[in-house]
Amino acid sequence: MNHYDALETRDPAQREAALMAALPDHVAQAQRMAPAFAEILRGVDAAAVSSRAALARLPVTRKYELLARQQAARAAGGDPLGGFAAIGWRGLLRDKGARRVFQSPGPIYEPEGHAIDYWRSARAFAAAGFQAGDLVHNCFSYHLTPGAWIMEAGAHALGCTVFPGGTGNTEQQLAAIADLQPVAYAGTPSFLKILVEKAQEAGTKLSITKALLSGEAFPPSLRDWLTERGITAYQAYATADAGLIAYETSAREGLVLEEDVILEIVRPGTGDPVPEGEVGEVVVTVLNPDYPLIRFGTGDLSAVLPGPCPTGRSNTRIRGWLGRADQTTKVRGMFVHPGQVAEILRRHPEAGRARLVVAGEVADDRMTLRVETECSGPGELALRMAETVREVTKLRGEIELVLPGTLPNDGKVIEDARSYK
């Protein structure tokens, strides 16, 4: 089954106990060594954060907040990493500096520590059938962003050799593949398809038989297309901030969570965990002492799958990437965002899930808040909620009350259904 180690198959209760036992020290480390988290978690008793319920009471830090803090710190001549890292490269916080610093769109800057397989991607390679001694043609970018380094570190940890192909230069890449005959590929699905097609046009066949893909959607149609051409490919879900979060296995049933990640699925715009199976935003706490992200909102939508993976891996599974949680839209010149919908629901506990539908045409927008409820006095609730919509959004909106279970389970809080013709 290509298991990386025994941790992947341990009893789920044992794993949960280990994660919760590590959580208080992780929170304390963040408070002590990362000034941003010292501020965000001011007044929090780290020793008491030893359960998922306690973790869920901590604030979610989303990507835009990370960016804002970094920008403010740089403008003030402070830590370019915004106080989120426990390491720097000039002895900012500890004697041990970062090995590399990367830039992601924003720009957001992330450190890389010295741990072997710092990004923890080796599990994904093992699940994809990679083995020690494989030559991996790595076609993620080695420029600015950490994508290539995330993959290279995991491949090295597994005992693979890496050819740093990078992006573009298709003809040179194909020449190198023809010369070196790598059996494995790491990169985006679209570039692998380009390489295969270009090789076919030249009347040749790639030596590549296995692939670990990330950075883009990987639809089943493309997976089958690659399989027909002799390449077995799997996907990994990783971010520049958190590293590997989850990975696909030979079962092809969702993605298995990485062992050092505590996952929560929350309602977009809030920090409130949703019931198992409901689509929401992926929030992760990564047990990385160098970059101790706590309740980091990725902005991605997913949902937990029930039951264990048929490969014997016992960790939680998620459905994979299902879209973006940031559904902010502009209505009659005003921005409306998921947090406002969450605030409306907070003021009306008798309401359940809700979706704000923006319809009509540009310059003639209409807002309707569709709300699931079992309320016995729907007319009164609708009037009260309409007033709350005006207070929170500064816009008028209609209220449509529906039965529980009516709204789609797709994680959408705001639906833009306007005509742009």
Describe the structure concisely:
By secondary structure, this protein is of the alpha/beta class. The chain has helices at about 10-35, 35-40, 50-55, 65-75, 120-125, 145-160, 170-180, 190-200, 220-230, 340-345, 380-395, and strands at about 60, 100-105, 110, 135-140, 160-165, 185, 210-215, 230-240, 245-250, 255, 260-265, 280-285, 295-300, 305, 315-320, 330, 335, 350-360, 365-375, 400, 415. Helix 10 (about 340-345) crosses helix 11.
Task: Describe what this molecule looks like in 3D.
This protein is α/β, with parallel strands linked by helices and 421 residues long. It has a domain at 329-416: ANL, C-terminal domain (GMP Synthetase, Chain A, domain 3, 2-Layer Sandwich). Helix content is 29%, strand content 25%. The protein has 11 helices and 21 strands. It has helices at residues 12-33, 35-40, 52-55, 63-75, 122-127, 147-158, 170-180, 189-201, 220-228, 338-346, 378-393; strands at 61-62, 100-104, 108-112, 135-138, 161-164, 184-187, 210-213, 232-239, 243-248, 255-257, 261-266, 280-286, 296-302, 304-305, 317-318, 329-331, 334-336, 351-361, 364-373, 398-402, 414-416. The protein has a 9-stranded mixed beta sheet with strand order 5-4-6-7-8-9-10-15-14, with helices on both faces. A 4-stranded mixed beta sheet has the order 1-13-12-11. Strands 20-19-18-21 form a 4-stranded mixed beta sheet. Helix 9 links the parallel strand 7 and strand 8 (232-239). Helix 7 packs across helix 8 and helix 10 (338-346) crosses helix 11. The longest helix is centred in the first third of the chain and has 22 residues, at 12-33. It is globular and about 75 Å long. The model has no long low-confidence stretch (mean pLDDT 91).
